[in-house]
Amino acid sequence: MDKDLLSFRKRLKAAGERQGWWNSTGLIVALSGGGDSVAMLCLLHDFFRGRLVAAHLDHSTRNGASHDDAEFVQKLCTVMGISCHVKVVDVKNNKHVGESFEMAGRRERYAFFRETAAAEGIDFIAVAHSEDDLVETQLLNLFRGTGLDGLRGIPERRGDIVRPLIDFRREELRAYLRQNNITWREDVSNSDTLYKRNRVRCELIPWIKNNLNPNFETTMAGLAKQLSDELPKREEDAVLNIEQVSADMPPALACWVPQRLKGLSVPKLRDMLRVQGKRLELLVLSRDRTNELVDLIQKGGCWRFQWSGDIEVCYSERGIGWLHRSDMVKDARENKQNNQKDLLPWWAR
How far apart are the C-alpha atoms of 302 and 346, rounded to whole Å? Predict the structure, then answer.
């Protein structure tokens, strides 16, 4: 084994041991057909001893090019002797109210990955985010004002989602594929600077490297690791606080009892909101929006706050609930039908 491959195996194993999947029985591999995911599949095929199952969601986009991606990954997996699950979803026409295409695509992908994992009896889902993706996310979070947690970028593991390539650079993965005559699919939308991430990738980061710091990505990745070492204690405290204030209040996805929040400081409330959002896999709120929500909680009363998409935080004297707007409409209708008196649902009174 040459020096580069030894280095790749060492870094892959180190990530696997940190993230907890290296000695597992198998991985679901999120396979888009792009360079990063193809490299991940090939590296895992070479060095991981467990079972691999690929999963590919065809988003029905790019005038049929997404169907070509699906055909490509199926052929690749056949050659490699790897089982491949493919699902076709018209994402544009399956968006929830308030969802962007990107949000809807992510929701559909991860739901499909978890369906596949359950069907195959596999505990971990591997996605191909690299160190470059980490740095891009850090910058996007910085501009959105998501605070220290956002500057961590992409967590290397979140529940069943693991990121084997988080210590790899995008270009070295492409070099590995070229050296081994392995082809991949290029999504032309990745260079479309109408998207913020692509502007960061194609314009901002090259400018910073050329004008300010040629080792910019390494510096940012180091910051992410530092914050990942320092912030977990705050998250642990937030989890304990959430457990102490939580109650089961259907149809809420999560609910806090307002009276139990007395005495908690503003920084603790901020941390609790961030952790609750993370638990529900919601979009990270900006610092300003988080502060706005903390102010509302401290004022009390009866109000509704849109978190993201169709998720609203509703405050009443009985609870602070995270609810789907569709569940709120259904709950209000059923509540009116089941009560002779015209009582409002718990989250509205």
Answer: 11
Q: 131: how many CB neighbours lie within 10 A of its CB? A: 22
The yes/no answer on whether domain 3-129+156-187 falls in CATH 3.40.50.620 is: yes
Residue 202 amino acid letter: C
CATH number of 232-348: 3.30.465.60
Q: Is the sign of the CA dihedral 191, 193, 197, 199 positive or negative? A: positive
Does the reported pTM lie above 0.90?
Answer: no
Tell me the C-alpha distance between 26 and 52, whole Å. 6
Q: Look at 170-184, 280-294, 331-345 and tell me which has the smallest mean pLDDT.
A: 331-345
CB 40 within 8 A of CB 16: no
- The DSSP element (H or E) to which 215 belongs, if any, is none
Q: Encode pLDDT of 10-40 as tens digits.
A: 999 999 999 999 999 999 999 999 999 999 9
CB 115, CB 86: distance < 8 Å: no
pLDDT more than 70, % of the chain: 96
